[in-house]
Amino acid sequence: MENESTVAAPVRAYLLGKLADREADALAEKYFTDPAFFRQVQAVEQGLIEDYLENRLSPSEHHQ
Fold first, then answer.
1. Segment 2-22 mean pLDDT
2. Contact at 8 Å (CB) between 27 and 19?
3. pLDDT digits over 55-64, tens only?
4. How confident is the model over 16-50, as pLDDT tens digits?
5. At CA 43, angle to CA 41 and CA 49, rounded to 5?
6. Rounded distance, CA 14 to CA 10, Å?
7. Could you say which DSSP state residue 16 is in?
8. Is 17 in a helix, a strand, or coil?
9. Can you say whether the dihedral through the CA atoms of 16, 17, 23, 25 is positive or negative?
10. How many helices (H) and strands (E) does the chain have?
């Protein structure tokens, strides 16, 4: 199983719409078929929301 630090960067990129279509499709498929990965994505998403609320995003991330 991948740990959260291994997953965080591509998941964050996915949530911000920065992944190429092929990578995004693969991540989405795993998201819907792997319950452990689903929970990891939720954790990254929660961190991204917190970063947004605390103004810790770069200007480009904030826009996305």
1. 86
2. yes
3. 998 888 888 8
4. 999 999 999 999 999 999 999 999 999 999 999 99
5. 100
6. 6
7. T
8. coil
9. positive
10. 4, 0
In which region does residue 2 sit, left (phi positive, over 0), alpha (psi from -120 to 50) or beta (all else)?
beta
Could you give phi then psi for residue 6, rounded to 5 degrees? -70, -35
Token representation of residue 7: 């997953």
Q: For residues 43 and 48, what is the distance between their CA atoms, to the nearest angstrom?
A: 9
Residue by residue, DSSP assigns 40-62 as HHHHHHHHHHHHHHTT-S-HHHH
Kindly state the tokens that stand for 24.
Answer: 């995004």
| Chain position carrying tokens 């770069």 | 58
pTM: 0.82
Q: Rounded to whole angstroms, how far apart are CA atoms 1 and 35?
A: 11
